[in-house]
Amino acid sequence: MMNLLREWGFPVGLLVTWTIAAAFTLYALGDMQATLQSTQVPSQSTQVERQPIAAGALRPAPGS
What we know:
It is a single chain. This protein has 64 residues and is an all-alpha fold. It contains 1 helix and no strands. The protein has one helix at 2-39. The longest helix is centred in the first third of the chain and has 38 residues, at 2-39.
């Protein structure tokens, strides 16, 4: 029984550790994708639109 444990203990432990690490990595990547989507700023238009000048907005300086 001890020989069987010595022969298979390390490979099984390594496989279990690798499986846990892979599952954690996939979970972290999924969580990162959700965080990235929630923090992205929506794209804004880069086009400049002409705005009409408000009536009376341009007044001559006093004394001119």
